[in-house]
C-alpha cells in the first residue's frame, strides 16, 4: 500500500486505522494449539488419558514436579510423541485497549514527515542497484528530496554518496527517521516465531534498540530498498515491517502465560497482552488468588493498543520466577537477543555462571528492553 501525500497533510481528520481510534474487536482463536513437551533440558510426560476435553488451567503433563497447563479449553490429544494438540472452539475478545487519543505523538510524526518530505513507501523490494539508478533519475529531475539509509550505508559506494550530495539530496540516517517516527514512545513490539521451540515471543523495540538490532541483522547483508514519491528508503525488511504494523493498526496479541510461585508450588494461567507487562496481570488479577502484587508498572502500555487475537499455530508458556521486590522474569529472552556482545544477560537471573562478564561493557540495552523492569545493570555491577 502506498499512502498519498494527503495522508501526511495536517488535516484534523485522522484515518480510520490510526492507533488512537482503534475500538474493541472480536477475533477468532486458532483452531488448534501445539504444545511441545520437550523444552530445553526438561521433557514433560503426558498426564491422564488422551484424547479428552480439557479446561483452562488443567494439567496436561508434568516434568520434575512442574505441570504443563492447558491455556484454553478444548479437545486435547497426543499429536505425536512430543507434542500435545488442543483443538479449540469459540472466540477471544479484546480485553484491553488504550482509547485515549495520542494526537501529540502522531502530530509529531506528521510534522517530521512534512519537514523532510518523507512518505510511506511501497513494501515491494527492489535490488539496491536498481534503487540507486532510479534515485539518480529522480535527483536529476528534481523529484528526489531525501535518501533514508541505515548504518548499512557503508555498503553504498562513496561515489554515489558524493553524487547525491552534489545534487542537494538530503541523506537521513535511519536512527534520525525512527526518532522522528516514535517521539516520546517508550516501547514498541513486534512478533517473531521460533520454529525451533514453537514458542511465541514478543520483542520490545525502541529507536535506539531497533538500530542495534538492525545492525546485527543478517538481513543487512542483502539490503532491501524502496523508492516512491521522491524518497529512497534503505533498511532491513524488519524495520519496514515495524512501521507498517504501527500505522496500519495491525493487531497485537495476548500470549498465554503460566505464573509460578516457586515457594508455594502454585501455578495459575493468565493472558498477558503484548503491550503490557506482567505487573498488569499481577496487580489486576493475582491478588485475589493470594499473590503479592509488585509495585512497579510499565507506563509504556498506555500508548500501544493491545488486542486479543489468534496466536497462529503457536502458544507461549513461560515459567515465572519469584524474586523479592521484583517483577518475575518472563524468560522472553529479549535481553539476550539485544545484547551487542552476546554476553547472555538472561543468565543473571537463572545461572550467573554463564554470564560473560568480560565481554559486557554495560551499555544498558538489556535493562532497557526488559519487560519486567529487572535492574540488570545493577546486577552486572554487583558481580565480582
TrEMBL record:
Single GO MF descriptor: iron-sulfur cluster binding
Q: Which UniProt keywords apply?
A: Iron, Iron-sulfur, Metal-binding
The record's section on PROSITE patterns has: 4FE4S_FER_1, 4FE4S_FER_2
Residue ranges annotated for the 4Fe-4S ferredoxin-type domain, each copy included: 320-349
Whether Iron-sulfur counts among this entry's keywords is yes
List the Gene3D superfamilies hit by this protein, alphabetically.
3.30.70.20
SUPFAM superfamilies attached here?
A: alpha-helical ferredoxin (SSF46548)
The name of this protein is 4Fe-4S dicluster domain-containing protein
Organism of derivation: Leptonema illini
